[in-house]
Design goal:
This protein is of the alpha/beta class. The protein is built from ten helices and 14 strands. The strands form three sheets. Strands 1, 2, 3, 4, 5, 6, 11, 12 and 13 form a nine-stranded mixed β-sheet that branches. The protein has a three-stranded mixed β-sheet with strand order 8-7-14, with no helix packed on it. Helix 7 runs antiparallel to helix 8, helix 7 runs parallel beside helix 9 and helix 8 runs antiparallel to helix 9. The mean pLDDT is 95.
Length: 338
């Protein structure tokens, strides 16, 4: 098969029962469908064998998180395109073809995502990806259709195919040869932001990342970790620091890290004031964890070129959102995107 849709599962029997039938109905003519099981301890695998015997199952030996789970599984998959699909996504008729047609039209497109809308509030974009991802000059990620917790209603305002900075790992179409060329996802991330890091590395190699709004899927979100979780705070903070150190151009590295020390400190104390003591300590733990891998990252960084890349917002999204009241993507100064 040219296309392999690979769903990573960890104790997600309920999601598989609910959403796998739609994936089969709307994908089986276009792609091979594979479940990569991350050493689940529920009855996911027996359930799949009984209810969906036609589906191929790859069983990973351990739960190494999103990054390692996909890296291990995709070593056993032969296809031109991989589609990394969360188990809590409802796909729609014809969701694959527009994205693949776009990627076929330009070999420089390494990755692409469809439009991601909320499963529970179907007229709105969903947090994890919305209509394509960006970062600001300090490494804070955001999306067309989602700035922080503000989710826009989809009124067709983002229906044009466009280049973005990152495509969501919730439904990530990626060229298999590029995935292998880049060594897959960074397994140090475990979960969260590994797709942004992957897209940044692809852009450093001259590839493009796109969003194709002619395809739409609906995402539950928060299936592994709830949005308000100290563990998620820790992973996001730690992984963001790792990602920036790996990928920032030399002339931006010190400036950004000094700024982020200050901004992350503010975030930590805001957590504390708001009663989130576990989140406060999660920020501290995240920085200490980053310093723990710093020597390794420094050695790796010396071996690679780090170029300025496009689709970066050259302002501070935190300041624009919280201080200047810019709550929608259209409120941002579009001339400030590189």
């Amino acid at each position: 098969m040219k296309i392999a849709v690979v769903i990573l599962n960890w104790n997600g029997r309920s999601f598989l029962k609910k959403f796998l039938p739609s994936v089969i109905d709307h994908s089986h003519d276009d792609a091979e469908i594979i479940i990569a099981d991350n050493a689940s301890t529920d009855d996911s695998v027996p359930f799949l064998k009984k209810e969906f015997p036609e589906i191929r199952i790859i069983r990973n030996e351990s739960n190494g998180g999103f990054a390692k789970g996909y890296n291990d599984a995709l070593k056993e998959v032969e296809a031109e395109y991989f589609v990394l699909l969360n188990s809590d996504i409802e796909v729609t008729p014809g969701w694959i073809k527009p994205v693949i047609d776009l990627m076929d039209s330009d070999p420089d497109i390494a990755a692409c995502q469809p439009k991601i809308r909320s499963y529970h509030d179907r007229e709105k974009f969903e947090y994890a990806g919305a209509a394509g991802g960006f970062i600001d000059k300090y490494g804070y990620p955001f999306c067309r259709g989602r700035l922080f917790q503000t989710l826009e209603k989809d009124t067709g305002q983002f229906d044009e195919v466009t280049e973005v900075f990152w495509a969501t790992g919730a439904c990530l179409f990626v060229r298999a040869n590029v995935y292998r060329q880049l060594g897959g996802l960074d397994e140090r991330f475990f979960a969260h932001m590994e797709e942004i890091d992957f897209c940044w590395r692809a852009k450093n190699k001259g590839y493009k990342v796109m969003v194709c709004p002619q395809s739409t899927v609906f995402h539950v979100g928060g299936g592994t970790l709830p949005k308000k979780s100290w563990r998620k705070t820790y992973l996001n903070m730690r992984n963001n620091n790792i990602m920036m150190y790996k990928n920032l151009p030399d002339n931006r590295l010190l400036k950004v890290f000094l700024a982020r020390l200050f901004l992350d400190g503010i975030a930590a104390f805001k957590f504390l004031v708001d009663g989130g003591i576990r989140d406060f300590f999660a920020v501290i733990k995240a920085h200490w964890s980053f310093y723990g891998v710093y020597p390794e990252l420094k050695s790796e960084r010396k071996l690679k070129k780090h170029l300025p890349v496009t689709r970066v917002y050259l302002r501070n999204i935190v300041f624009d959102y919280f201080m200047r009241g810019k709550k929608k993507f259209s409120d941002l100064n579009q001339d400030k995107f590189s």
